[in-house]
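User: Sequence recovery, please. Input:
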């Protein structure tokens, strides 16, 4: 074989399809810019296909699809007359009402370039390119109806459609994409879409008019049967009313902020694969639901009245319910909590005590004693309460810590402008969370940190937690509008109880005495600065023992006031195996002296 026929090393490398996929996959090398992908597409046929897939996989708008049609078949117009065609896309300050329009019917030959690229699209965002008053509107959607006459579905591999229809542009053409192999459908209209008056000549209506007319029909008549539907329409669309939801047999996830009426709720309860529901406005019952409803439900996020929520929970038959989020409708009171708990944790479904890992409740006012039935759910990892006033005591914290050893997130969010509750836990009352909940990652609540004296772990009934794995998530601690006492004592307790505490978590939500909490943060930062100088890079077993001993010495210094430098010298002298490293640590000791002086100065 002649040298000229031997493929170059680069050509051989880029002929490996798997390698090309790896190069263009954003999960491995991050998102590549358009120019880089374009250059890759010129290297070889193999990587050209892969790079083109990456370029067209996730696109915004269908303008580029319209530009794939021949210019003799499709033109750019700034008006309704034939002579209003312009040779190029006008600037926004020239014409905002320009559009694409066919000059003749499309043929199979016109779609050669279209077919090459349209089949690569997996994700499409269709809507206004800007939310500003002088927005650049979406173009190209006005041609989708005509393309659909020859290619149905228009985009044969489209999996996710994020659709923001607007009456001012061609985004309504997205209606003609709903019959493809969709899996995710996200609908968020930009403005209210009013029903169109009837006409005597419906066949003469444009594709956009037909799309708008269909769009304003009841949603249940045209919603695609996909696995995930998200509707964020607010006041722009009518309620989900009437029957027809039973045809959504593929639905697994549903989010909707429209009013949801009783017939649709009944249909939802019978869907076999529905796992996640989030409904912001559920009309009041009764619904006439049986106990065998929602067989596959895993998460339930509902905003409604107490009686309606109780009826819905009673109907849930799923043995794998993991998350419940209940938002009490404005003006309602949670006056019968025991009825709610009986519906959520029924005796005939004991598995619920094991599967439930997350619970959230939004009410006007709450005493933590009313959530006591939840203590039976030993696997609970997240509890989030949102209320203007929350009555929580040290005893409540103790019960939560005893009941939920796997707790990761505890948020007791109170109103930012309401008076401080008369019943809040003390800072030292958080000790049970430190000893019993080693996986805690978020702690947000209102407390009283006005400490009177140093903290005594022995008297508190626990031991100082062992040094924890630094690779784990840091603890975010937000003391909401909480009074703060002596910053040194507060920092001492937090360092001992929560060694994974994030240095940056004491933010502006700490309240009117934020200056004191800022001082706490400064002391915690200095303590972390000190730990950084401990020789953590020493790999021998005896040196690991030294590191652990030094950490214990740091804790002792906080608790008993022992001088760190003296303790470190004693440890070095006690172990003859590390005497040879004494000189190497002298420099670190000098830095420790400086840190000790800064601590004393505070």
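Assistant: Recovered sequence (602 residues):
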């Amino acid at each position: 074989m002649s040298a000229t026929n031997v493929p170059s090393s680069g050509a051989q490398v880029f002929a490996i399809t798997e390698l090309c996929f790896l190069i263009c996959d954003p999960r491995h090398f991050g998102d590549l810019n358009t120019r880089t992908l374009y250059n890759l597409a010129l290297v070889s046929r193999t990587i050209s296909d892969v790079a083109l897939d990456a370029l067209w996989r996730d696109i915004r708008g269908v303008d580029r699809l319209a530009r794939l049609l021949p210019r003799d078949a499709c033109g750019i117009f700034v008006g309704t007359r034939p002579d209003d065609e312009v040779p190029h896309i006008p600037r926004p300050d020239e014409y905002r009402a320009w559009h694409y329009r066919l000059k003749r019917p499309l043929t199979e030959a016109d779609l050669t370039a279209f077919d090459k690229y349209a089949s690569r699209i997996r994700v499409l965002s269709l809507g206004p390119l800007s939310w500003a008053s002088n927005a650049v509107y979406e173009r190209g959607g006005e041609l989708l109806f005509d393309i659909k006459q020859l290619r149905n579905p228009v985009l044969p591999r489209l999996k996710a459609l994020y659709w923001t229809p607007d009456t001012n542009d061609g985004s309504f053409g997205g209606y003609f994409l709903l019959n493809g192999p969709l899996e995710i459908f996200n609908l968020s209209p930009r403005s209210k879409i009013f029903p169109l008056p009837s006409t005597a000549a419906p066949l003469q209506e444009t594709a956009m008019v037909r799309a708008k007319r269909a769009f304003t029909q009841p949603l249940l008549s045209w919603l695609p049967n996909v696995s995930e539907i998200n509707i964020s329409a607010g006041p722009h669309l009518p309620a989900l009313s009437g029957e027809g939801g039973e045809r959504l047999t593929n639905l697994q996830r549903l989010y909707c902020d429209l009013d949801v009426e009783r017939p649709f709720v009944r249909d939802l309860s019978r869907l076999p694969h529905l796992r996640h529901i989030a409904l912001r406005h559920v009309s009041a019952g009764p619904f006439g639901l049986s106990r065998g409803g929602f067989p596959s439900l895993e998460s339930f996020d509902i905003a409604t009245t107490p009686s309606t929520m109780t009826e819905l929970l009673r109907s849930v038959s799923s043995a794998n319910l993991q998350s419940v989020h209940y938002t009490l409708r404005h003006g309602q009171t949670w006056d019968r909590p025991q009825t709610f708990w009986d519906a959520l944790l029924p005796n005939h479904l004991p598995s619920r005590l094991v599967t439930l890992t997350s619970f959230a409740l939004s009410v006007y006012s709450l005493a933590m004693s009313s959530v006591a039935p939840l203590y039976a759910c030993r696997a609970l990892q997240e509890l989030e309460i949102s209320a203007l006033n929350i009555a929580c005591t040290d005893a409540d914290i103790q019960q939560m810590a005893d009941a939920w050893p796997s707790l990761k997130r505890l948020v007791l969010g109170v109103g930012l402008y309401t008076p401080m509750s008369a019943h809040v836990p003390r800072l030292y009352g958080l000790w049970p969370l430190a000893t019993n909940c080693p996986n805690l990652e978020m702690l947000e609540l209102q407390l009283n940190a006005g400490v009177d004296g140093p903290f005594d772990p022995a008297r508190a009934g626990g031991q100082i937690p062992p040094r924890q794995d630094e690779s784990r998530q840091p603890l975010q601690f937000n003391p909401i509008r909480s009074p703060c006492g002596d910053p040194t004592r507060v920092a001492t307790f937090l360092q001992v109880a929560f060694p994974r505490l994030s240095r940056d978590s004491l933010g502006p939500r700490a309240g009117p005495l934020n200056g004191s909490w800022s001082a706490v943060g400064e002391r915690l930062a200095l303590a972390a600065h000190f730990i950084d100088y401990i020789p953590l890079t020493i790999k021998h077993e005896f040196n690991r023992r030294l590191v652990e001993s030094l950490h214990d010495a740091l804790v002792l210094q906080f608790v008993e006031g022992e001088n760190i430098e003296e303790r470190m010298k004693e440890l070095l002298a006690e172990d003859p195996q590390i005497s040879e490293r004494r000189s190497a640590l002298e420099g670190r000791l000098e830095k420790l002296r400086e840190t000790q002086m800064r601590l004393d100065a505070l």
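Residues 8-23, 532-548, 558-562 have pLDDT under 50 and may be disordered.
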